[in-house]
Design goal:
The N terminus is likely disordered. 41% of the residues lie in helices and 17% in strands. Helix 3 crosses helix 4. The two termini are 26 Å apart. The chain is α+β, with helices and mostly antiparallel strands.
């Protein structure tokens, strides 16, 4: 998807991966292979931490979670107004800020919801439970 002619999928990873392994060489190999998969945020857990792979635990562990950035309360208001079909100028008037600020919030929502347009943003907001219908 494009945003003003630029690809913006690279701005945020699609998933967050945490790697735990006692053996540093094994940990490095796992991380290298995961990073080769594309837009993943790969993090190393401190091998000495309580959450790391312990002496009784497995040699290595990998946790994955889907990245879904939260939206601000103001963005939630804007998303609700998008669902009503309001234009930027109407959103600005309703919420008491400039049209430029409304446009900024709409663009931020499109980016965070990985949406190509306002309708897709509303659909994604409903799917994620950010707005009700």
């Amino acid at each position: 998807m494009n945003f003003h002619g630029r690809s913006w999928r690279h701005l945020r990873p699609r998933a967050r991966i945490v790697v735990r392994a006692r053996d540093p060489q094994l940990r490095a190999e796992i991380v290298e292979r995961l990073r080769g998969l594309g837009d993943l945020a790969v993090e190393l857990d401190d091998p000495g931490s309580a959450a790391g792979a312990g002496a009784d635990g497995p040699d290595a562990a990998v946790e994955a979670s889907e990245e879904q950035p939260g939206i601000t309360p103001r963005e939630a208001e804007v998303l609700g107004l998008l669902a009503e079909g309001l234009a930027n100028k109407e959103i600005a008037a309703r919420l008491g800020f400039s049209t430029h600020t409304a446009k900024f919030h709409v663009e931020s929502l499109l980016r965070k919801l990985d949406a190509a347009n306002r309708a897709v943003a509303v659909r994604e907001g409903i799917r994620r439970g950010l707005i009700g219908m």
